[in-house]
Design goal:
- This protein has 186 residues and is of the alpha+beta class.
- It is 24% helix and 37% strand.
- It contains three helices and nine strands; from the N terminus they run βαββαββαββββ.
- A five-stranded antiparallel sheet has the order 2-6-5-4-7. A four-stranded antiparallel sheet has the order 3-1-8-9.
Length: 186
């Protein structure tokens, strides 16, 4: 691994049927052709970020995976989420999620504390907000689509991702995928 630096984040992996439903909703309601500089997040990149670590030495990866595994093992699977409304910030469009029993928030808080003790992360002052980024833009398109109706999402895996920036946007690669609560194996 040497001196290489990686742009890293930890996230909950969405179930396949939720990804498919979100992709169909994006195609119907967030057409990138409407506005220049708008990019729909591709299905393979849809996730719920737990902690964005930024640029880290590759040598940190094993310790980060250990802490993600510990936080994931402590979770009570499945993490139950329900899609809510669409919201835009200055650079992204997102689908807000309701954390039905607080399990996703518990994983995010536990992981944040573990990574902070490890010295690779600093938690934000504001509370963690469960969401899926579905759109990226330079200028806010001010879209107002109805929120997707995905029903309840049972999330059973977390992952450590590498984010590689490029001219067409970021590409995410899963470095390690872990079961929540120790279910589902590797």
């Amino acid at each position: 691994m040497g001196d290489e630096r990686l742009r890293l984040f930890c996230a909950l992996q969405l179930p396949g049927e939720a990804v498919d439903a979100l992709a169909a909703w994006q195609a119907r309601h967030l057409s990138a052709g409407r506005t220049v500089g708008v990019r729909i997040v591709p299905p393979e990149h849809l996730h719920v970020t737990l902690a964005f670590l930024g640029s880290r030495p590759a040598a940190d990866v094993p310790a980060i995976v250990r802490e993600l595994a510990a936080a994931s093992a402590a979770a009570a699977p499945p993490v139950r989420l329900r899609s809510g409304r669409y919201r835009e910030t200055r650079s992204v469009g997102m689908v807000l999620l309701d954390d039905l029993d607080g399990a996703a928030t518990a994983v995010a808080v536990d992981l944040g504390e573990r990574l902070e003790r490890l010295g690779v992360y600093r938690r934000e002052q504001r509370p963690w907000l469960p969401h899926v980024t579905v759109l990226r833009f330079r200028e806010r398109p001010r879209l107002a689509p109805p929120g997707p109706e995905l029903g309840e999402l049972g999330v059973v895996r977390s992952a450590l991702y590498r984010s590689a920036l490029g001219p067409a946007g970021a590409r995410y690669d899963v470095l390690e995928s872990l079961p929540l609560g120790g279910v589902g194996g590797r």
